[in-house]
């Protein structure tokens, strides 16, 4: 039998991959044409009917080529989400010309290797020009950097699928004049990383920011006699452990961060939930406006006083105007014991007639009312009208 030449096959695979890349780039260029036509006709970015048809057809055709339906779905979901995001970004830039520019200054927690840095990279995808990195040591510093004009925007985590809401950020939103201008969903995969040859049985100290520590609590609780050292950011934890260079010291961080700091993973996926995701918000001094053809979210802060049923009455106003709420969170109000501030996210554009009517009714019935901002709804599978 003739010997199969691995190198030659790999050349063929590389050539095919390059063709795939070129086809993906061509598909993206078509998505830009699509959104331009949607601007002319005022059509929504997302068309769920078209997506379902597309997936069904591709799945049927794929089967004939021996490709599993699950595989086709996951590949095309990624491609379609990218196309939707590209179109949303195009519309946002058209509507808000000063949104992103070269040499954009971004404040976030930590430095390269932190989870916030991955969110910043995602936020700046497609931006031509350099990011000016304003690494901060606390969430407070991030708000201050943007308020004092040391940064154009701040990127902050606000909730996580394992550890829930990040209260510190909610509390800072209560007093800031900054507006939320975008949101990002970042998959967070925690690994246990070490600086030199080691294994789990040798570990006596684990460094980590308190959020990853909370998100990996099940794994950490199973370990005996391990000291947890909490740092102000993941990047601080990573650089400390690299410096200490000891087989008994490990750190919680992503595999990519490990590569960046020259650390090896001794255990992957140590978060309590397999689908561990963090939602980040982007804050700026000026609000943005979202075109009606993009799925939008509006974030509000309300307090309703202590009258029985006051919160229910306020929420009924959203129902009355057919506005869906996707999040409600309550936090104590500084200096007003036992009173609560309610953070409410609705899947509605601030400028829509429904939303404006609801706000007109809502304002006189609540004690505090603040608009935190209206921005593109980035959670996938959102319907648009
Ligand atoms: C490209 C379009 O926009 C969106 C993206 C789609 C895609 O990438 O195939 C399909 C439907 C829309 O949700 C379109 O409407 O055709």
TrEMBL record:
GO cellular-component term (any): cytoplasm
The pathway that the record names for this protein is: Metabolic intermediate biosynthesis; prephenate biosynthesis; prephenate from chorismate: step 1/1; Amino-acid biosynthesis; L-phenylalanine biosynthesis; phenylpyruvate from prephenate: step 1/1
Task: Note the superkingdom of the native organism.
Answer: Bacteria
> Where in the cell does this protein reside?
Cytoplasm
Q: Where is the Prephenate dehydratase domain?
A: 105-285
Query: Location of site Essential for prephenate dehydratase activity?
Result: 278
Report any Pfam family annotated for this entry.
Answer: CM_2
Recorded E.C. number(s)? 4.2.1.51, 5.4.99.5
Q: Which Gene3D superfamilies match?
A: 3.30.70.260, Chorismate mutase (1.20.59.10), Periplasmic binding protein-like II (3.40.190.10)
Note the coiled coil stretches, chain numbering: none
Domain (ACT) spans 299-376
Q: Which keywords does this chain's UniProt record carry?
A: Amino-acid biosynthesis, Aromatic amino acid biosynthesis, Cytoplasm, Isomerase, Lyase, Multifunctional enzyme, Phenylalanine biosynthesis
Among the GO biological process terms of this entry, one is: L-phenylalanine biosynthetic process
Please name the InterPro entries in this protein's record. ACT-like_dom_sf, ACT_dom, Chor_mutase/pphenate_deHydtase, Chorismate_II_sf, CM_dom_sf, CM_II_prokaryot, CM_P_1, Preph_deHydtase
Task: Give me the reactions it catalyses.
Answer: chorismate = prephenate; prephenate + H(+) = 3-phenylpyruvate + CO2 + H2O
Domain (Chorismate mutase) ranges: 1-91
What PROSITE patterns would the database entry show? ACT (PS51671), CHORISMATE_MUT_2 (PS51168), PREPHENATE_DEHYDR_1 (PS00857), PREPHENATE_DEHYDR_3 (PS51171)
| UniProt function note | Catalyzes the Claisen rearrangement of chorismate to prephenate and the decarboxylation/dehydration of prephenate to phenylpyruvate.
NCBIfam families under this entry?
Answer: CM_P_1, PRK11898.1
Which PANTHER family does this UniProt record tie to the protein?
A: PREPHENATE DEHYDRATASE P PROTEIN, PREPHENATE DEHYDRATASE-RELATED
Q: What is this protein called?
A: Bifunctional chorismate mutase/prephenate dehydratase
**Native source species:** Catenovulum agarivorans DS-2
């Amino acid at each position: 039998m003739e010997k199969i030449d691995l190198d030659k096959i790999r050349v063929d695979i590389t050539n095919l991959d390059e063709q795939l890349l070129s086809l993906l780039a061509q598909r993206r260029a078509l998505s830009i044409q699509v959104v331009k036509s949607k601007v002319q006709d005022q059509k929504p970015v997302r068309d769920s009917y078209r997506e379902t048809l597309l997936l069904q057809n591709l799945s049927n055709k794929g089967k004939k080529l021996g490709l599993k339906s699950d595989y086709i779905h996951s590949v095309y979901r990624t491609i379609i989400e990218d196309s939707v995001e590209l179109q949303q970004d195009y519309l946002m830039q058209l509507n808000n010309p000063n949104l992103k520019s070269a040499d954009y200054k971004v404040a976030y927690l930590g430095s390269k290797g932190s989870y916030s840095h991955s969110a910043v990279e995602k936020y700046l995808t497609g931006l031509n020009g350099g990011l000016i990195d304003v690494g901060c040591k606390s969430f407070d510093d991030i708000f201050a950097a943007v308020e004092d004009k040391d940064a154009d925007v701040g990127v902050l985590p606000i909730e996580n699928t394992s550890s829930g809401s990040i209260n510190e950020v909610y509390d800072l939103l209560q007093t800031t004049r900054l507006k939320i201008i975008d949101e990002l969903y970042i998959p967070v995969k925690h690994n246990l990383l070490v600086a030199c040859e080691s294994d789990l049985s040798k570990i006596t100290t684990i460094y980590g920011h308190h959020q990853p520590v909370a998100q990996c609590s099940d794994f950490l609780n199973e370990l005996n006699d391990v000291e947890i050292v909490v740092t102000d950011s993941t990047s601080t934890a990573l650089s400390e452990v690299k410096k200490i260079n000891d087989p008994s010291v490990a750190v919680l961080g992503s595999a990519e961060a490990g590569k960046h700091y020259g650390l090896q993973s001794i255990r992957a996926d140590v978060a309590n939930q397999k689908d561990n995701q963090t939602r980040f918000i982007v804050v700026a001094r000026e609000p943005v406006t979202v075109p009606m053809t993009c799925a939008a979210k509006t974030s509000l802060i309300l307090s309703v006083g202590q009258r029985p049923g006051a919160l229910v009455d306020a929420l009924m106003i959203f129902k009355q105007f057919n506005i869906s709420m996707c999040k409600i969170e309550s936090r104590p109000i500084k200096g007003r014991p036992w009173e609560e501030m309610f953070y409410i996210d609705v899947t509605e554009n601030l400028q829509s007639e429904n939303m404006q009517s609801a706000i007109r009714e809502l304002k006189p019935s609540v004690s505090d009312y603040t608009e935190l901002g209206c921005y593109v709804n980035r959670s996938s599978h959102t319907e648009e009208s």
